[in-house]
Amino acid sequence: MANYMTQPMSAAKTIKITYYRKQSQSHPSHEETGAFTLAAESDYSRFNNIPADEVDIGTFKSSQGVPTAGKTHKI
Questions:
Q1: Which of 13, 21, 22, 44 is most buried, by CB atoms within 10 Å?
Q2: DSSP letter string over 4-69?
């Protein structure tokens, strides 16, 4: 099974989107995880046409499978 980083993003009056990306190694670095979170936040902000500071950043998880529940987006 491939290992993926996952993290949900939401904001008031918008739907939650769970972002995911394949990890480059079994234990991703802080740089890799930080870049993933920033990319997810930026994409969610752009997609919903809201300022980034209005995005609610959910719990980051690593070593996950591809999320299948709800709306998902690979970045």
A1: 44
A2: EEEEEEE-TTS--EEEEEE-SSSS--HHHHHHHHHHHHHHHHHHHT--GGG-EE---EEEE----S
